[in-house]
Amino acid sequence: MTYQTTNPYTEQVVETFTSHSDAQLDNMLAVAADLYETDWRQRSYAERKTIVKQAAALLKERRDEFAKLITLEMGKLFKEAQQEVSLCVKILDYYADNAETFLAPKSIAVKRGEAHVEISPLGVIFCVEPWNFPYYQLARVAAPNLMAGNTLLVKHASNVPQCALAFEQLFIDAGAPVGAYTNVFISSEQVATAIADPRVKGVALTGSERAGASVAATAGKALKKSTMELGGSDVFIVLDDADLDTAVKLAVIGRMQNSGQVCTGSKRFILDEKIAGQFLERFQAELEKLLPGDPMEASTTLAPMSSQAALELALKQVGQALEGGAKVVLGGKRIARNGYFMEPTILTDVAPSNPVYYQEFFAPVAMVFRVKNEQEAITLANDSPFGLGGTVITKDIARGKRIASQIDTGMVFINSPAVTAPELPFGGVKNSGYGRELSDLGIMEFVNRKLVLVG
Ligand code: NAP
Q1: Domain identity same for 157 and 202
Q2: Which residues line ligand 1 (CB under 6 A)?
């Protein structure tokens, strides 16, 4: 795997990085394990907090510098990149401020004597992360684990090496000792070697089902705890009582943020037939207004996709959809200009027999379905191998909550596209993975919850 920056707007290779050798990987593992044992786990929460708070402060100060690297390497609109960096500042601060409370010993009422559960770190945690939110994904694992007393080895996606290095440097600049947070440029085979190594105590992956299945199998074989944050094909249900202004506005955000490359992006639009025609017309009109261009420019509203491979996969899926009987209402093609731009696309008539029906579109492609009623909407929503998030648009909040309870996913948003914040647990069920990141749940994934009982 070549770690390389290719600008998706210019299609130019900017920089190529040398991968780490097996010997270098072994040395980095040794440093991380030794630091954990002799230093990091023994530091107080206050000491670790000083460093994580300093990382947050530096990130805030250097927001635009960090954001530019996101736009350079994976093409995100600069204003979205700035928002991502600001979100990371909040995540770092949140765990720095709350970790000690979350991990405080909890006493248990017992008939005789006394008992409590005390929480301690596990050791080196190995992380595999994707490019679509190049810092946010790292902050989600770094902040809770560093505060819990674990050390981390992180393999980032090969197309965002400069973001990977910048995030590692952030912790060094904030005063973290070498080995607390280590970036590795390694292959999938080396990932497997690292996971099997006895010095690694836990494995966190965010990425595709394919990568998740492979890494989870390696972790399972070595009896290591793992968390898997995988893909999704989230629904955006518009009920017959929905306010269509709100529905259309949120649908555009839900589908088009990050050029459609969001795990919790709205991918299947399920419309009550009473409002379907009106919604579709207005949704299409809004997508037609999006302007491709330089993602650094404030006037650009459609960013390129992250790579040639990502664009080609999306075009291939649209081709399969059409062969399978779907219709294109809008778009469907590459935009004839420099950069990996894809037209915002709307597909209808996607039958369950269509090969794309159960696939994730990690691209600006919306599949639209019409239903007769609420029950049909729920049945269709649950007819998916994925179970990550989903949105329900309705004026009747009680109805929205009732539907939310019947959708088999890890997150449901009523009158909101998928949102994320440090205090909101993030994760899925079914093929979207297991475990949670963020919130108090996220910091509990890689710790020992030890019972101590006095008889
Ligand atoms: P991907 O191909 O699975 O890549 C993700 C990471 O896994 C990269 O670092 C990649 O490295 C690595 N990887 C891939 N195969 C591997 C293997 N066999 N062994 C070890 N590492 C391996 O995912 P993607 O297509 O770039 O990212 C998009 C996917 O991630 C979508 O399905 C999206 O929904 C999902 N996602 C989920 C969440 C969530 O929180 N649930 C968040 C964001 C994205 P290389 O780059 O070197 O191949």
Answers
A1: yes
A2: 1, 128-132, 155-158, 188, 191, 206-208, 211, 214-215, 229-232, 263, 360, 362, 388, 428
Q: Identify which of 443, 445, 436, 321 has the alpha carbon closest to the alpha carbon of residue 389.
A: 436
Q: Is the domain of 436 the same as that of 362? A: no
Does any domain span residue 67?
yes
* Segment 402-428, tens digit of pLDDT: 999 999 999 999 999 999 999 999 999
Q: Is 406 exposed, middle or buried (0-12, 13-18, 19+ CB in 10 A)?
A: middle
Query: Do 427 and 99 meet the contact criterion of CB atoms below 8 Å apart?
Result: no
Same domain, 272 and 182: no
Give, for ligand 1, the residue of 1, 206, 305, 384 to mutate: max count of ligand atoms closer than 8 Å to Cβ: 206
Cα 25–Cα 28–Cα 31 angle in degrees, nearest 5: 150
Q: What are 247-285's pLDDT values in tens digits?
A: 999 999 999 999 999 999 999 999 999 999 999 999 999
Q: Are 238 and 254 in contact (CB under 8 A)?
A: no
The set of residues, in sequence order, having a beta carbon less than 8 Å from that of 162 and lying 6+ positions away, is 5, 15, 69, 72, 73
Q: Does 72 share its domain with 209? A: yes
Nearest CA to ligand 1 atom 15: 211
Residue 340 belongs to some domain of the structure: yes
Provide the annotated active-site residues.
229, 263
CATH number at residue 83: 3.40.605.10
What is the count of structural domains for the chain? 2
**Nearest Cα to Cα of residue 201 among 118, 155, 136, 145:** 145
Is 427 part of any domain?
no
**Are both 175 and 206 inside the same structural domain?**
yes
Tokens linked to 131? 């490019």
Nearest Cα residue to 63 out of 82, 88, 91: 82
Q: Distances from the Cα of 291 to the Cαs of 77, 82, 125, 259, 335, in angstroms?
A: 12, 19, 42, 12, 11
What is the C-alpha separation between 199 and 222, in angstroms, rounded?
A: 11
pTM over 0.85? The answer is: yes
Cα(18)–Cα(10) distance, integer angstroms: 23
CA of 203 to the centre of ligand 1 (A): 14
Tens digits of per-residue pLDDT, 137-176? 999 999 999 999 999 999 999 999 999 999 999 999 999 9
| Structural domain boundaries, residue 370 | 234-421
The candidate with the shortest Cα–Cα distance to 51, out of 178, 176, 202, is 176
Does 91 lie in the same domain as 198? yes
Check whether residue 155 and residue 275 sit in a common domain. no
In a domain, 53, yes or no: yes
